[in-house]
Specification:
By secondary structure, this protein is α+β, with helices and mostly antiparallel strands. The chain has helices spanning about 75-85, 125-135, 145-155, 170-185, 200-220, 230-235, 255-260, 265-270, and strands spanning about 15-20, 30, 35-45, 50-60, 65-70, 90-95, 100, 110-115, 190-195, 220-225, 240-245, 245-250, 275-280, 285-290, 295, 305-310, 315-320, 325-335, 340-345, 350-355, 370-375, 380-385. About 20% of the residues lie in helices and about 35% in strands. Strands 8-9-10-5-11-12 form a six-stranded mixed beta sheet, with helices on both faces.
Amino acid sequence: MGYIPCGLHFDRLLSFTVAAGGSDGVADTVTETGAHDVEFRSVSKRYGDVVAVANVDLAIPKGAFVALLGPSGCGKTTCLRMIGGFEQPSQGTVSIDGRPMNGVPPYRRPVNMVFQHYALFPHLDVEANVSYGLRQMRPRIDRREVARRTAEALELVRLGGFAGRRIHEMSGGQQQRVALARAIVNRPAVLLLDEPLAALDRKLRTAMQIELQSLQRELGITFLLVTHDQEEALSMSDLVCVMNAGQVIQMAPPQEVYDRPGTLFVADFVGKTNRLPGVVEAGGGVLRLADGRRLSVASPAPGPVTAILRPEAIGIVQGEGGHDGLPGTVTHRIFLGNSVEYAVAADGLGEMLVTVDRGGAHRLVQPGDRVTLRFSPESLLVFST
């Protein structure tokens, strides 16, 4: 696997190109400009015979909001803990701001961490929780400076009037803000976030996603978020780093990861999908599906493939549509308010998921109804298998 520097998204300062690698499907081609806050060089982490992180090369630029996304056991939290100093690499080098950190204890590193369960001190009030790190610093910081920076951090997270509150008197969202204030008061170069929104309800989680984005832009420091929640990663970050089996599979802006996944794993893991097995015929350019249907596609070399079709790329109409579309029967309907999901048993192809926006003139289809599914061949993502 090659070295993976990466840059910022949208209106940020760095430019980059990330491409999937060779047959192993690991990202290995990048060009970029700018400095990096965190670098992994040939980093591996083993626990006995178990390889948690496998020879990872990675570079995260200054001021980026990066999400490490992947299934349980993929190595994302281990990477975060090696950056924070809670774990040491078995081999390779972890650097922060250009300085190797191997063997450096957590309290000597220019990073702070927000844990999933916040780890607040229940016997201390909000002000004492936030100022705790400042009061432990040596040489000691002047008491007035501690008070000033603590008040500044509380204002940043919109808790200016809560300094004297006890932790048990705070809601879940407020406790998370206390944890954030405690993490930023020391002015770290990198803020590590270990699934900090997992304990919040959906509505509060959405509000906190916006607050985290705003805070990161205001502070201008690097945020590194670990999550298994795809929506969280796509909505909050400048860059999404998809991991699996201890390796970085693809790193790119959220829209690229979703619309142009580099591997079948990324396509299948990020977002909902329909998998359509088929064969690219000799000469290329023609995909033959399991039901015998032939589609013109921009495809890989001839041979067996898996075509990925997003549910929102499929249209659904009641009744049979002749040869124009895929006939099938609705088996389930899930009403989601602004959209509807249908499970459809497509003739000759098996079960398919369809998502329809209710903003148009869509009429609800009932389970048991015969329908026709339509999609553009250009919406297929085709991967050799």
